[in-house]
Amino acid sequence: MSESSGEQLKKSLETCGLLDNAEEVGEGMYRMSWGSATVVCAARGTAIVAIAPMFESLPKKNTDAFCQKILKLNAEMGGTAAFAIQSDGSVVLQTGRGIEGLDADELKLLLSTVGKFADDYDELLDQEFYT
Question: With b meaning 16 or more CB within 10 Å and e meaning fewer, what string describes 111-129?
Answer without folding.
Answer: bebbbbbbbbbbeebeeeb
